[in-house]
Design a protein that fits this description.
One of its GO terms (molecular function) is DNA binding. One of its GO terms (biological process) is DNA repair. This protein is an alpha+beta fold. The protein contains 3 helices and 6 strands; from the N terminus they run E-E-E-E-H-E-H-E-H. It has one domain: DNA Methylphosphotriester Repair Domain (3-Layer(aba) Sandwich), CATH 3.40.10.
Length: 91
């Protein structure tokens, strides 16, 4: 049995992979995070999220596809993303 998984590539397009994804994401929100993310699990439990769920092999691929890190399960990565996009205040 050769199992295949549907992942999203750096170009944002789906492809079949012999290896499962290590990160999940939400297509509409352009967010990615760990598969055990508390926020994602809660959204799934409440009936949302699933229709727009996507998976990535790694973080680099998720970022290349235009997704940002989840603030709940990846706070340090999210802070780096946010700081890189926000101009310094003051001055």
């Amino acid at each position: 049995m050769n199992r295949r998984w549907k992942l999203i590539g750096a170009d944002g397009k789906a492809y079949e992979s012999p290896v499962p994804g290590h990160f999940g994401g939400h297509r509409k929100g352009k967010i990615y995070g760990r598969l055990d993310c508390r926020a994602a699990r809660q959204a799934i439990a409440h009936g949302g999220y699933v229709a727009h769920r996507v998976f990535f092999l790694n973080e680099e691929t998720a970022r290349a596809a235009g997704y940002r890190a989840c603030a709940v399960c990846m706070p340090a990565e999210h802070a780096r993303w946010k700081n890189s996009r926000t101009p310094p205040r003051g001055r």
